Amino acid sequence: MKLRTYIVEDNATIRENLIGTLEELADVQAIGIAETEDAGKAWLTANSSDWDLAIVDLFLRQGSGLGVLEACRQRRKTQKMVVLSNYATPDVRMRCAQLGVDAVFDKSNEIEVLVDYCIEHGRGHMDSSRAS
């Protein structure tokens, strides 16, 4: 079973490359995308049982990824929220941790780490879906 992943990223090139990389290397299925805070919040909260992982950029065409993270604080324990940003500073990482984010990755040099995270989370997801 693939890791159902929703991506909130307003840069089409980054989004398409990310989806291609994750689908090829990490057994991820991209189930939807949003380019704005409002669209990301709306989909993730309305379809709260339909996703396993959300990858969120902080700087969006409209709004902020922080609003998306805030809207998903009450998610199930098995659902993971990660941030993929060009601005993965210590302050940003701390703010994300306060919002219950599971991990923060820097777009410029941590894509491989994100792929590894997705592979690992996918394995854990498989184990928990077998157990239930």
Automatic annotation (TrEMBL):
The keyword S-adenosyl-L-methionine does not apply. Coiled coil: none annotated. Residues 4-122 form the Response regulatory domain. The keyword Phosphoprotein applies. One of its GO terms (biological process) is phosphorelay signal transduction system. Pfam families: Response_reg. The modification 4-aspartylphosphate is found at D57. Keywords: Phosphoprotein. SUPFAM superfamilies: CheY-like. Gene3D superfamilies: 3.40.50.2300. InterPro entries: Bact_response_regulator (IPR050595), CheY-like_superfamily (IPR011006), Sig_transdc_resp-reg_receiver (IPR001789). PANTHER family: RESPONSE REGULATORY DOMAIN-CONTAINING PROTEIN, STRESS RESPONSE REGULATOR PROTEIN 1. This is Response regulator transcription factor. It comes from Diaphorobacter aerolatus.
